[in-house]
């Protein structure tokens, strides 16, 4: 769980989302409970971004699971995606943002220089009712630049 060994008691029929929220991982949101909105996104091992509301928790025994809480570094510093979302005003109510961040993280793991269209496609499974998607797409591309070292504004910042 976010790089640490953890065990959870799981009830019969319980979803991964229910288990994670019960264990205090509140970044996993219950938006639609039908796998449509992306608010419950997690990174599930090699499967990548996954709707945790559709996954039986018992099927995740031994799996690597990452929630939005796992994006921050060990000192609590923000991941470049999180910083870019703040800088670009890509979050308002933030209910959907953990899922959007994990979809973005998954995209950048597979494509370190996504085009605007590729980012839009990568985020298409996430519903945001506040910001629209322009700022989120800009933020993902800014984070990609920062992670690749091509962002001139991050030079000399550490």
Task: Give a short synopsis of this structure.
The chain has 158 residues and is mostly helical. It has 5 helices and 3 strands; from the N terminus they run αβββαααα.
Describe the structure in your own words:
With 158 residues, this protein is mostly helical. It folds into 2 domains: 16-70, Beta-grasp domain (Ubiquitin-like (UB roll), Roll); 80-152, DNA polymerase, domain 1, CATH 1.10.150. The chain is built from 5 helices and 3 strands; from the N terminus they run αβββαααα. The chain has helices at residues 16-22, 80-87, 97-110, 116-122, 134-148; strands at 41-44, 49-51, 65-66. Helix 2 crosses helix 5. The model has no long low-confidence stretch (mean pLDDT 93). One of its GO terms (molecular function) is 2 iron, 2 sulfur cluster binding. InterPro entries: 2Fe-2S-bd, 2Fe-2S-bd_dom_sf, 2Fe-2S_ferredoxin-like_sf, 2Fe-2S_ferredoxin-type, 2Fe2S_fd_BS, Beta-grasp_dom_sf, Diverse_Oxidoreductases.
* Overall CATH class of the largest domain: Mainly Alpha
Number of helices: 5
- Low-pLDDT runs of 5+ residues are none
Q: Calculate the terminal CA-CA distance, rounded to whole Å.
A: 28 Å
Structural class: mainly alpha
Shape: globular
Q: Could you give the order of strands across the largest sheet?
A: 2-1-3
The residue-averaged pLDDT reads 93
């Amino acid at each position: 769980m976010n790089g640490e060994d953890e065990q959870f008691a799981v009830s019969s029929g319980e979803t991964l989302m229910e288990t994670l929220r019960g264990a205090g991982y509140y970044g996993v949101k219950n938006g639609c409970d039908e796998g449509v909105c992306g608010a419950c996104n997690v990174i599930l091992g090699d499967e990548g971004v996954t709707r945790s509301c559709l996954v039986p928790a018992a099927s995740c025994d031994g799996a690597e699971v990452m929630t939005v809480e796992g994006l921050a570094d060990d000192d609590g510093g923000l991941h470049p995606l999180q910083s870019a979302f703040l800088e670009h005003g890509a979050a308002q109510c933030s209910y959907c943002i953990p899922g959007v961040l994990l979809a973005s993280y998954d995209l950048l793991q597979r494509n370190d220089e996504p085009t605007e269209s590729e980012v839009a496609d990568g985020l298409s499974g996430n519903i945001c009712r506040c910001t629209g998607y322009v700022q989120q797409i800009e933020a993902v591309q800014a984070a990609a630049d920062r992670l690749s070292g091509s962002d001139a504004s991050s030079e000399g910042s550490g």
